[in-house]
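Customer ticket, subject: "Can you confirm the structure for LysR family transcriptional regulator?"

Message body: Hello, I'm evaluating your service for our small team and ran a test protein. I'd like someone to confirm that this is what the system normally returns, since I don't have a reference to compare against.
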Amino acid sequence: MDLDLRKLRYFAALAEHRHFGRAAEQLFIAQPVLSRQIKSLEQELGCTLLLRTTRSVELTAAGKQLYEEAQQLLSSVTAAVRRVHDVDQGVQRLVVAFSPGLPVSEAIRAFTSRHADVEIDVIPSSWWEPDRPLRDGRAQVGYLRRQFDESGLRILPIGHDPRVACMPATHPLAGRPELTSADLDGERMLDVPRRRTSSLEEKFELIASGHVIALIPLSIARSYARPDLVHLPVTDAPAIETCLAVAADRRDRLVRDFLEIATATLRRA
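Agent reply: Thanks for trying us out. I re-ran your input and got the following:
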């Protein structure tokens, strides 16, 4: 079966807005056209993607999976088209993926000072699958946290990111200077696997509302600081290793130069 990218884009817009009218407005098409295209996509796939009511649109389990796949696929197609245009126009471009909270700007500045003719783009990687941009071609280099699937990748260790306990400012433990893992026994902790596709903002809302506590990297805690949350060191929690990652078979000059400069810069930082 050939998957129609136009229908996939329509579905992704609908999955994002969960509303036919708003999705159609974003796509600059009529709402009945969008409805027909989504029904056609469901028929082609042979499964129900949406649960429709008079007031809302909800994704089925199959719809949620397709939305996750569609985001990655459409991003890959966009990146491929851009690479074709770059070659046609003689543009040198380097794309760097980064895990949330890991600042790569200093390394990019150092690289740009020596390669002013190279255009640099950055894209965030998901916390549950940080290596994905390297595998689908959207990025040449990643500044990531371990653990992830390292098969087919070359890894350059950079440093370590301590983990802290993130909790509401009103929590009984919030006034302590530091914690141990034993202090968190009996507390309701964030179930990472079940919340895999949630955004960091959603997770912090859950924490702030008093539902859960989460162990998070210190760099994320600093990047997403808010007054209703506190972040306490957990003295016996193992730190997370940070690294630069690149496809093992990449040996082009731009990537090699960036790795050399970024490794030295990020390790100093």
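A couple of notes from the result: The beta strands are 50-52, 57-59, 93-98, 119-124, 141-145, 153-161, 163-168, 214-217, 229-233, 240-247. The chain has nine helices and ten strands. Feel free to reply with more questions.
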